[in-house]
Design goal:
Layout: H1 9-21, E1 29-40, E2 46-51, E3 56-61, H2 63-66, E4 78-88, E5 93-103, H3 106-122, E6 141-145, H4 150-162, E7 168-172, H5 180-194, E8 199-204, H6 218-226, E9 231-235, H7 243-247, E10 250-251, H8 255-262, H9 266-299, H10 302-305, H11 307-350, H12 353-396, H13 398-403, E11 408-411, E12 429-434, E13 437-442
Parallel strand pairs: 3-5, 6-7, 6-8, 8-9, 9-10
Antiparallel strand pairs: 1-2, 1-4, 2-3, 4-5, 11-12, 12-13
Helix pairs in contact: 4-8, 5-6
Length: 452
């Protein structure tokens, strides 16, 4: 009997996962189905179920992949999804890991179109204030379109007919298919890098929504918005509107209309030139007529007929008036100067140094008298105060007390005042100070005073 192999659930799930991931066909598969149970996690990952009429499959699309989607998946939307099949080991459930996704059918394309349109409009890419003006007389025109379609033929014929002197630089691109959008974006970037044109026409002829889809791609819209050169969009027929039309600086209904908007018409320019020449000729005629009439008036002017009477006599009269006015003003000025001089004399007299010195001397003498009087009063008060204090000190002086029969006793060693018998002993020498001298005495006996 063979030995049994027992696997854990984890090992079994891992084994099945390795089997599924080892199948190349299951690692790159396209699925068609309807989205249900759609959830977008806060991490950005999308969890949903793909289903058809008979079955369903758990699916996930990580944030690193769904950030590149040109539309937002919704509940009930039919999609085409590309990805791989694997097993989620924890639950033992196989599921679909989506890497790419696109709407399935025209309805899905229209939804993606509307979603991208709202997104770019919210970012301000359609705002009129960011659109650049189309030059009136471009030095060169760039055309980005398919080199084989009817659109390029219509554009070139129209440019040649309207403005044959302008150079046209054609940048051939793909206008349909998965590589169309990158091709258009590269062409716009290259035209901006070379800077050989003043305006660009970007577009193609008409077609279905699927055929025009390259001009609804977000990359193309952002490429147009980033262009420094003005762009005229010319996509499809008059009723066709693409995202590129909204982002472009100017939208043309058809490629032919775009060529008409890009350059002026030579016949119109010639007509404007002829009108300008006629207006200039008429303006010169009117100017010449006005100058001739002005010259004739000058010729008849009295200044030319009799210049002495018209010019010299009025000047002589004016000179006489000015001379009289000057004399009058000089007299007025001299009178004002004399008045000012008199006022200055009076002010100088009032401010004479002699008068100032006399006034200062009187003030000094008055101040000296006041100072001496104040000093005298102060000294008298101080003398009285000094006598009073001297009498007080004399009354409190110990010498006064000693004159009444009192004396002071000091010890012999430290010359300290003895005021108690405890400070001396029998046999000690003490100094007795009197009013007229001092005595040295021996202590032969002591008697303590009884205070009882």
């Amino acid at each position: 009997m063979s030995e049994r192999t027992v696997l854990s659930i984890k090992d079994l799930n891992r084994y099945i996962k390795m089997k599924l991931e080892g199948d190349n066909r299951l690692q790159d598969v396209w699925l068609q189905g309807e989205i249900s149970n759609f959830t977008r996690h806060s991490s950005g990952h999308m969890y949903f179920t793909l289903k058809d009429a008979d079955s369903r499959l758990k699916s996930i699309m990580f944030a690193s992949f769904n950030q590149k989607l040109s539309f937002l998946p919704r509940e009930g939307m039919r999609v085409l999804a590309r990805g791989s099949i694997s097993v989620y080991e924890r639950d033992g459930q196989y599921q679909f890991y989506a890497r790419e996704m696109q709407p399935d059918g025209v309805g899905g394309l229209y939804l993606a179109y509307e979603q991208l349109k709202k997104k770019l409009e919210a970012e301000g890419l359609f705002a009129p204030e960011r659109k650049k003006a189309i030059p009136t007389f471009p030095r060169a025109v760039g055309v980005i379109t398919s080199p084989t379609g009817a659109a390029v033929r219509d554009v070139l014929i129209t440019l040649q007919r309207r403005y044959p002197m302008v150079p046209v630089i054609l940048y051939p691109v793909l206008v349909q298919g998965t590589q169309a959008a990158p091709s258009i974006v590269r062409a716009i970037a290259k035209m901006n890098e070379l800077r050989e044109v003043d305006v660009m026409i970007v577009g193609r002829g008409g077609g279905s929504l699927e055929e025009l889809w390259a001009f609804n791609e977000e990359a193309v819209a952002r490429g147009i918005a980033a262009s420094h050169i003005p762009i005229i969009s010319a996509v499809g027929h008059e009723t066709d509107f693409t995202i590129a039309d909204f982002v472009a600086d100017l939208r043309a209904a058809t490629p032919t209309a775009a060529a008409e908007l890009a350059v002026p018409h030579q016949l119109e320019l010639k007509r404007q030139l002829a009108d300008g020449q006629q207006r200039l000729h008429q303006a010169l005629q009117r100017t010449l007529q006005r100058r001739s009439e002005a010259l004739e008036r000058l010729r008849r002017s009295p200044y030319l007929v009799s210049p002495q009477r018209q010019l010299l006599m009025p000047a002589a009269q004016q000179l006489d008036r000015m001379e009289a006015e000057l004399a009058m003003r000089m007299r007025q000025r001299l009178s004002r100067a004399a008045d000012a001089h008199m006022r200055l004399d009076r002010r100088m007299e009032a401010r004479s140094p002699r008068a100032n010195m006399l006034a200062a001397r009187q003030q000094s003498e008055a101040a000296g008298r006041a100072l001496r009087q104040a000093m005298s009063r102060l000294m008298q008060g101080k003398r009285q105060e000094f006598g009073s204090r001297l009498r007080s000190l004399d009354a409190l002086s110990p010498l006064k007390v000693m004159q009444r029969g009192y004396s002071l006793v000091y010890d012999e060693r430290e010359q300290k005042l003895v005021n108690s018998i405890e400070q001396v002993q029998i046999g000690d020498v003490v100094n007795v100070r009197l009013t007229d001298g001092q005595l040295q005495c021996h202590v032969w006996s002591m008697e303590e005073k009884n205070n009882e």
